């Protein structure tokens, strides 16, 4: 009788860690989150992204994903769209606990507090999966030492795409050590564009009309006080960039801090 050959162990290319999926949550038919184990040597700063993916036909198939989890968490969490014919996400959307995912060993990115000049209010403007890096930043205690106030604005098409809404409004304020740190400092401003919702419209419109400021009881954007991080689609980034620059904001980078920073919410396939 032939012995059954053991399944060959997948060879993980040296640029990646092979990590085990521990949790998967589907928000909608277009959006899901997952967690995986984290190699102790994988270090990142809140706001960074890494190349994430799967081995496909013996080769890594990866895309840039911002880390959702804060640097102090034991595991890593990511937020992804699902595209039925997208090379990566058509596969990644089917992962289950126990599966192996690839995590690039070199996280990077510009959405870092050190790329911004000191200020008092930090605005985190996201559309869709652009919320991901901000989920990490709002759980980084250092952010609350740098800023008196942190405002997360998340715009999506439909209410159910407001991923992490219950977590931000319910669990996070009760968190054993963050709860106290962010009390009175973290403001959450969700808006929806294609369904009825208390706050409707694109963030660009809500800024232009001044509604976001009157709703939150905050003064209009000023380069003196406000710092902005921007993460959305190419079109959203371009529109908000133009609005900010018209108000005197200057883009910061890893070489020179500025009054705003921007990154594309990467994965579209
Ligand atoms: P809208 O429904 O008016 O297009 P998407 O799912 O296409 O990435 O969009 C996510 C959210 O971003 C939607 O609410 C969408 O609004 C909004 N959005 C799309 N383009 C822009 C833009 N140029 N500026 C601001 N918001 C935008």
TrEMBL record:
Cofactor: FAD
EC class of the enzyme, as a word: oxidoreductase
Superkingdom, taxonomy of origin: Bacteria
Alphabetical keyword list: FAD, Flavoprotein, NADP, Nucleotide-binding, Oxidoreductase
InterPro entries xref list: Cbr1-like_FAD-bd_dom (IPR008333), FAD-bd_FR_type (IPR017927), FNR_bac (IPR033892), FNR_nucleotide-bd (IPR039261), FNR_type-1 (IPR051930), OxRdtase_FAD/NAD-bd (IPR001433), Riboflavin_synthase-like_b-brl (IPR017938)
Catalyzed chemical reaction(s): 2 reduced [2Fe-2S]-[ferredoxin] + NADP(+) + H(+) = 2 oxidized [2Fe-2S]-[ferredoxin] + NADPH
FAD-binding FR-type domain mapped to chain residues: 14-114
EC code: 1.18.1.2
Family designation: Belongs to the ferredoxin--NADP reductase type 1 family.
Listed PANTHER family: FLAVODOXIN_FERREDOXIN--NADP REDUCTASE, OXIDOREDUCTASE FAD/NAD(P)-BINDING DOMAIN PROTEIN
The name this protein goes by in its record: ferredoxin--NADP(+) reductase
Organism: Belnapia mucosa
Lineage: Bacteria, Pseudomonadati, Pseudomonadota, Alphaproteobacteria, Acetobacterales
């Amino acid at each position: 009788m032939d012995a059954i050959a053991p399944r060959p162990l997948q060879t993980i290319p040296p640029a990646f860690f092979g990590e085990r999926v521990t949790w998967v949550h589907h928000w909608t038919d277009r959006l899901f989150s997952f967690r995986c184990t984290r190699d102790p040597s994988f270090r990142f700063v809140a706001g960074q992204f890494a190349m994430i993916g799967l081995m496909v036909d013996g080769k890594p198939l990866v895309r840039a994903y911002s880390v959702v989890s804060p640097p102090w968490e034991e595991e890593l969490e990511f937020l992804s769209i699902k595209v039925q014919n997208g090379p990566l996400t058509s596969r990644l959307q089917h992962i289950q606990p126990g599966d192996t995912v690839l995590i690039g060993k070199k996280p990077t990115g510009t959405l870092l507090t050190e790329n911004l000049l000191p200020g008092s209010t930090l605005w985190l403007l996201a559309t869709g999966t652009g919320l991901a890096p901000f989920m990490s930043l709002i759980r980084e205690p250092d952010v609350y030492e740098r800023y008196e106030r942190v405002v997360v604005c998340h715009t999506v098409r439909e209410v159910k795409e407001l991923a992490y809404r219950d977590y931000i409004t319910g669990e996070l304020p009760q968190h054993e050590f963050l709860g106290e740190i962010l009390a009175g400092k973290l403001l959450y401003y969700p808006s929806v564009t294609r369904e009825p919702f208390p706050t409707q419209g694109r963030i660009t419109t809500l800024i232009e009309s001044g509604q976001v400021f009157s709703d939150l009881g905050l003064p209009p954007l000023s380069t003196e006080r406000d710092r902005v991080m921007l993460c959305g689609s190419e079109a959203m980034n371009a529109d908000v960039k133009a609005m900010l620059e018209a108000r005197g904001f200057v883009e910061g980078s890893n070489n020179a801090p500025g009054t705003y920073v921007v990154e594309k919410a990467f994965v579209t396939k």
